[in-house]
Amino acid sequence: MAAPGICARRGVLRNKSSVFSALLHRTAPKDVFAQRGPGNRSVRAASHAPETQHDHTYCLGLVRSRDYEGFVCSLLLPEEARRSALALRAFNVELAQVKDSVSQKTIGLMRMQFWKTAIDEIYRDEPPNQPISMELWRAVRKHYLTKRWLLRIISEREKDLDDRAYRNLQELESYSENTQSSLLYLLLETLGVKNVHADHAASHLGKAQGIVTCLRATPYHSTRRRVYVPMDLCAKHGASQEDFIRGSRENSVRDVVFDIASQAHAHLQHARSFRENVPPGATPAFLNTVGLEDYLQRLRRADFDVFHPGLQNRNPLLPIQLYLRSWRNSY
C-alpha cells in the first residue's frame, strides 16, 4: 500500500494533468480580431468593466497558434498567474508579427504608436476595447505590472522595423534583453516574485531565447531574402548574406551558426548557475529552458546545419517534457 504522502502527491499530479490536458486542447474563435481590432480605439472600457471570456479566449488562441511553446508554458503556471501570462504572451506575439504583416515601415510605426498609447491608457484605467488591451489591463490591475517593461518591448520592436541584420552578437543580445528578458521580468511579477537572483536568471534566459529564436527563424527569413544573423560572425567565417539566402550548408555557414548557438548555450548555463538562490516560486517562469535545450541539442545533432529539415518540425514530446519539468519544479 502506498504511503499517504505519495497518494496525495499522485492526486495532485492527476488533477494538474487533467487541467493541463483540458486547456491544451481548447480552441479559440478565428474571427475575434476582425470584430475587435486595434482600430476600435473610440470605445473605452470603464474602470468597472466586467471580465469577459471573449478577450481571454482570443489571447489564448493567438498564443496557441503563434507561440506554441509559450502557450504550453503558460498553461503550466499557477492558476492565479495563467491568464495574465497568456495576456503578456499575446501582447508579445502581436508586436512580433507587426514586422512581417506590414508592407511599409510607416504602417508598422503607426501600429507601434497604437500600443504605446494603449499602454498609457491601460495605466489610466481607460484601456482600448480590444482583446489584448483588455487582458493586459486586467493583468496590470491584478499584479501591478511594471509599465517600463511593457514600453521597453514596444520600443525595441519599433527599432527592429528598420529591417537590417545585427552588426554583431552584442546587438542581438541587447535586442533579446529588451524583448524576451523584459517579458520574463513581467512573468515573474505575475508570480509575485521579486528577487535579484531570479532577475539575473531571467536576463540570461531572455538573451538565450532571443538568440535561439533568431536561429530558428533563419530558414523562414531566407525564403523572404532576409538575413538577421550577426554580420561580424559572417565576416569572421567568410560567409555571405547570399549564402544564408540560398540556404547553404557549407562549413562557413555552420561555423557562424555554431558561434551563435554557443553563445545561447552559455547564457542558458549562466542562468542555471543561479538555481540555488532562485526562489521556487520563480521556476515556473523559466520553463522555456526546455524548448531552448531541445532546439540546441537537435541543432548539435544536425552538425549545426540550421537548414536541416528536421529542425523545422515541432517536437511532439515537448508538452510532456515541459509537464515533467514543471512537476519537478526545476529549470
Query: What is the gyration radius calculated from CA atoms?
Result: 20 Å
| Quaternary organisation of the protein chains | single chain
List the helices and strands in order: HHHHHHHHHHHHHHHHH
Report, as a whole number of angstroms, the end-to-end distance.
32 Å
Tally of DSSP helical segments: 17
* Low-confidence region ranges: 1-14, 26-43, 45-49
Helical fraction equals 55-70%
Please report which band the strand proportion falls in: under 5%, 5-15%, 15-25%, 25-35%, 35-45% or over 45%. Answer: under 5%
By DSSP, the count of extended strands is 0
Largest sheet: none
Overall, the morphology is: globular
- The structure class reads mainly alpha
Overall mean pLDDT? 89
Layout of strands and helices, then pairs:
Layout: H1 4-24, H2 32-35, H3 53-66, H4 68-75, H5 79-96, H6 98-101, H7 105-122, H8 131-143, H9 147-159, H10 169-190, H11 196-216, H12 218-223, H13 231-237, H14 241-245, H15 251-272, H16 288-301, H17 318-328
Helix pairs in contact: 3-4, 3-5, 3-8, 4-5, 5-8, 5-10, 7-9, 9-10, 10-11, 11-15, 11-16, 13-15, 15-16, 16-17
Concise account of the structure shown:
With 331 residues, this protein is an all-alpha fold. The chain has 17 helices and no strands.
What does this molecule look like?
The chain has 331 residues and is mostly helical. The chain has helices at 4-24, 32-35, 53-66, 68-75, 79-96, 98-101, 105-122, 131-143, 147-159, 169-190, 196-216, 218-223, 231-237, 241-245, 251-272, 288-301, 318-328. Helix 11 crosses helix 16 (288-301) and helix 16 (288-301) packs across helix 17. The longest helix has 22 residues, at 169-190.
